[in-house]
Amino acid sequence: MGEEVTSGVVEPIASLLAIALTVFVSTILPYTLAFAAGVMIYVVVEELIPEANEGEHSNLATIGLAIGFVLMMVLDIALG
Predict the structure, then answer these.
(1) DSSP structure string for 17-71
(2) Beta carbons within 10 angstroms of residue 21's beta carbon
């Protein structure tokens, strides 16, 4: 029973630490979330879509997706 209690004691302490750090982290949070989203898109294109890695020009699908995504974001901002 002692191990369950000691592993559970860490959670409230860590949550209080996380709440205290939100003051400092909130300024860079949008940038870190955008970076994480970009990494996830890259992982999906490179690793989860097998057809994107076939052939001698396997990076073309990744570059095409990145260009298409940037174009979509520019049009979204420009056309509101």
Answers:
(1) HHHHHHHHHTTTHHHHHHHHHHHHHHHIIIII-GGGG-SS-THHHHHHHHHHHHH
(2) 10
Separation between Cα atoms, residue 15 and residue 17, nearest integer Å: 5
pTM of the model: 0.53
Output the six-digit token pair for 22: 């939100």
Residue 6: pLDDT above 80? no
| Structural domain spans, the chain | 2-79
Residue for token digits 């049009």?
75
Q: Identity (one letter) of the amino acid at 50?
A: P
Sorted by sequence, the CB contacts under 8 Å of residue 69 that are 6+ apart come out as 41
- Tell me, what amino acid is at 11? E
Question: Which amino acid is it at 9?
Answer: V
